[in-house]
Each structure stands twice: as structure tokens, then as C-alpha cells.
Specification:
This protein has helices at about 25-30, 85-95, 105-115, 125-130, 140-150, 155-160, and strands spanning about 5-10, 15-20, 50-55, 55-60, 70-75. It is of the alpha+beta class. It folds into two domains: about 5-80, Ubiquitin-like (UB roll) (Roll); about 85-160, [2Fe-2S]-binding domain (DNA polymerase, domain 1), CATH 1.10.150.120. It has a five-stranded mixed β-sheet with strand order 2-1-5-3-4, with helices on one face. A hairpin with a 2-residue loop joins β1 and β2 (about 15-20). α2 (about 85-95) crosses α5 and α4 (about 125-130) crosses α5 (about 140-150). It binds FE2/S2 (inorganic) cluster (FES) (2 copies). The site of one FE2/S2 (inorganic) cluster (FES) has 11 residues, from loops.
């Protein structure tokens, strides 16, 4: 099988992986042990496979892994630092915003992409950002409350801004 070398930074760590040109990002991340990236519809409809690529929320089931060459990818595994949950994760816990939990990584990452770009979103803006991640359990009420609560903790969030990671060369 024809392979290529993928150099990418995942959760702040430079990685070098052999992939096939047609491999999907979802498959590569799960193959490498990032099981917080959930396999749902595989059609770009449920958002459970959401990861951040250079800060933008994408459906990893629709993206070729080769497209993230030289990029920074963030999965839910990379959000807690030094044993401390990200404030969005903490707010999800405090508000009981996770039930079965299948959609939760995608929801939290979609919220992170929003708050990094727009630290003081309206409820409508939060709802719009989360709309790409389907949740069968919560009716979105508690997740939206949690994101709005996290947005009220700008100091905690700012303290956790990652230093730009070095991309593997
Ligand atoms: S598994 Fe990617 S959008 Fe559903
Ligand atoms: S918490 Fe179960 S699908 Fe969202």
C-alpha cells in the first residue's frame, strides 16, 4: 500500500505518522489512540467526530488526514492540562451537561472554538455553534448553560491559552 508521512501536532505534541493518502482524519486519530474522537454517522451529520484544526471545528470523518499536514489538531484528550479540567469541561460537569457523553467531546470542542473566537457570545451564538453536534439526551439546555457559564470565567480561560506548539518538521 502506498503510504506518506504525516507531520502534525496533536494536543501540543509533534507526531509523525505513516498514513495512506486516502485515510480519513477520524480513522487516523482513533488508530493512534485518540478515542475521544467519536465515530458516529461518518457522513458529516452528527458532529461527534469534531476536532479543532488550527482552532477551527471540523468533522474529522469528512477530512483526509493528509489535509492536516503541518497543522495543529486538538482533541478532547488535549484539553485538560496538568490534571486540571478546561473551564468548559468544568462547567459541563457543574451543570450536568453530559448524559450518555457520546456527543460531549464534540460539544466541548465546538464550544472552545466559539469562545476562543468570541469570548462573550450570546445564547443564540452558543446555540448556533453547538448546532453541528447532535445530542439525543440533553435537549441542549444544560450544555448551552454550561458554555455561557464558562464564558463568564475569562480569567480562567485566558490563563489556559496554549503557547503555540512546534509543528514536527
Ligand atoms: S461521525 Fe463525523 S459527523 Fe458524524
Ligand atoms: S449526552 Fe447523550 S447524545 Fe448528548
Amino acid at each position: 500500500m502506498k503510504t506518506m508521512e504525516l507531520r502534525v501536532t496533536v494536543n501540543g505534541q509533534p507526531r509523525k505518522w505513516a498514513i495512506a493518502p486516502g485515510d480519513l482524519l477520524l480513522d487516523v486519530l482513533r488508530r493512534e489512540g485518540f478515542f475521544g474522537v467519536k465515530r458516529g454517522c461518518e457522513k458529516g451529520e452528527c458532529g461527534s467526530c469534531t476536532v479543532l484544526v488550527n482552532g477551527r471545528a471540523v468533522n474529522s470523518c469528512l477530512m483526509f488526514a493528509a489535509k492536516v499536514q503541518g497543522c495543529e489538531v486538538l482533541t478532547i484528550e488535549g484539553l485538560a492540562e496538568g490534571g486540571q479540567l478546561d473551564p468548559i469541561q468544568g462547567a459541563f460537569l457543574d451543570h450536568g451537561a453530559a448524559q450518555c457523553g457520546f456527543c460531549t467531546p464534540g460539544m466541548i470542542l465546538a464550544a472552545k472554538a466559539l469562545l476562543d473566537k468570541n469570548p462573550h457570545p450570546s445564547e443564540d451564538e452558543v446555540r448556533e455553534a453547538m448546532a453541528g453536534v447532535l445530542c439525543r439526551c440533553t435537549g441542549y439546555i444544560k450544555p448551552v448553560e454550561a458554555v455561557l457559564a464558562a464564558a463568564k470565567q475569562p480569567d480562567k480561560r485566558a490563563a489556559r491559552k496554549r503557547r503555540p506548539a512546534e509543528v514536527a518538521r
